[in-house]
Amino acid sequence: MQTRLGGAVAAALFVLATLTGCVVNSESTVPPGERVRAERVDALAEQLPPATAAAGQLKVGSNVPYAPNEFKDDDGTIVGFAVELVQALGDVLGVEAVFHEADFDRIIPAVQSGTFDLGSSSFTDTLEREQSVDFVTYFSAGIQWAQRVGEPVDPDNACGLRVAVQTTTIEDIEEVPAKSQACTDAGLPPIEKIKYDSQDEAANALILGRVDALSADSPVTAYVIERSEGRLESAGPLFDAAPYGFVVGKGAPMGPVLQQAMQHLIDSGAYQQIADRWGVTEGTITMSQINAATS
Questions:
Q1: In degrees, to the nearest 5, what angle opens at C-alpha 62 toward C-alphas 94 and 256?
Q2: How do residues 221-266 score in pLDDT, each as one tens digit?
Q3: What contacts 24, CB < 8 A, 6 or more positions away?
Q4: Is the pLDDT confidence value at 49 over 90?
Q5: What is the Cα–Cα distance from 67 to 8, expressed in whole angstroms?
Q6: CB neighbours of residue 177 within 10 Å
Q7: Is 240 helix (H, G, I), strand (E, B) or coil?
Q8: How many CA atoms lie within 13 A of 78 on its CB side?
Q9: pLDDT per position as a tens digit, 73-115
């Protein structure tokens, strides 16, 4: 999960080019039609920090690609499930959500410094992170491995295999290293963790046989599999479910108002419409919280 513990693939359509043998990525996977919009709620808009209200915008830090949560469409616009969700939050609060692309590991410091009002990049809410920032939860994601069709891989018995991860994700920092340590503790060869800067690179590596499996957040893996033209499938069950959260400053007034706006989207049905539109209904929540981590 992008740690993005996350939490958290711009994995686009994977089309094997017959003449070159390479994998060609296309971002033309945005659902048709207009995004889901929400009505302004004056009582919530009035609670925005004065500087944010005066600016008329939410400055949002995001790292791409990590489809279907955050990625770029063919025109270079940042889109995705979480992006549309933040745009709807902006509707409720009467401001425009303006997305700024940033390196993943620089988003939290930028939120802390006030450069961004919030971070939206498939961040997993963790107890460790809660020491420095707050999280407004909006989704529940787990870890899901993928394999090439007909080439089974057991995530709990992957010693000696090559496993692709996106750098700085929870899969990179915690999950795969822990599994590898269990291998060496048992006198078996370690997992060879292969790190990629983007999830689409990791998925392409799996399709081309450069790695044996891929580990990513569950919505990301599902997206990769769906767009792999039958080349990839899930490997093992989903595990280690944890909340995604929008990152705000520790104790900042933005946290409570964002949480109330998120709950309004849930209660009004707009949240479910957005999830349905992006095909991420597994993992939706009924209650948004501030700091819901259990580990």
A1: 45
A2: 988 888 899 999 999 999 989 999 999 999 999 999 999 999 999 9
A3: 14, 15, 16, 17
A4: yes
A5: 9
A6: 15
A7: strand
A8: 22
A9: 989 999 999 999 999 999 999 999 999 999 988 999 999 999 9
Q: Residue type for 254, please?
A: M
Chain centre distance of CA 259: 18
Beta bridge partners of residue 70, listed in sequence order? 66
Q: Dmax of the chain from CA atoms? A: 62
Cβ contacts of 155-160, under 8 Å, gap ≥ 24: 155/179, 155/213, 155/215, 155/235, 155/236, 155/239, 156/236, 158/183, 158/191, 158/212, 158/213, 159/183, 159/186, 159/188, 159/189, 159/190, 159/191, 160/188, 160/189, 160/190, 160/191, 160/192
* CA-closest candidate to residue 228, choices 146, 158, 122, 151: 146
Bridge partners of residue 245, in order along the sequence: 137
Where residue 3 falls among pLDDT bands split at 50, 70, 90? low
205/210 Cα distance (integer angstroms): 5
Contacts of 175 (CB under 8 A, 6+ apart): 143, 215, 240
Question: DSSP state, 165?
Answer: E
Model confidence band, residue 13 (pLDDT cutoffs 50, 70, 90):
very low
For the chain, give the percent of residues with pLDDT over 90.
77
pTM to 2 decimal places: 0.80
Contact indicator for 108, 133 with CB cutoff of 8 Å? yes
Lookup result for tokens 């060496």: 184
Cα 158 to Cα 121: distance, rounded to the nearest angstrom: 28
The CB density around residue 42, as the number of other CB atoms within 10 Å, is: 11
